[in-house]
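Attaching the record inline, Q. Sequence:
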Amino acid sequence: MAIQKIKLTIEGMHCGSCATGIQMMMSTNDGVKSALVDYNSKKGEVEFDDSVVKLEKLLKDIEEAGYKATPAQ
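Structure, as predicted:
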């Protein structure tokens, strides 16, 4: 088990519901332990088991939902 905690910058959110939707979408992936998204800061954080789900999959899911997420600097 390789637990990772990654901070994300998320572009394209227009309201708090966008943040809630992204958070719920990430949480439904097997291997995701927790996901938090904050609309005001345009940031998110996801904790996941890298042996079950890859960061690339999570980022692609967010992109397919109409947003752009990148690991925060």
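Residues 9 and 41 are 9 Å apart (CA to CA). The mean pLDDT is 96.

More tomorrow.
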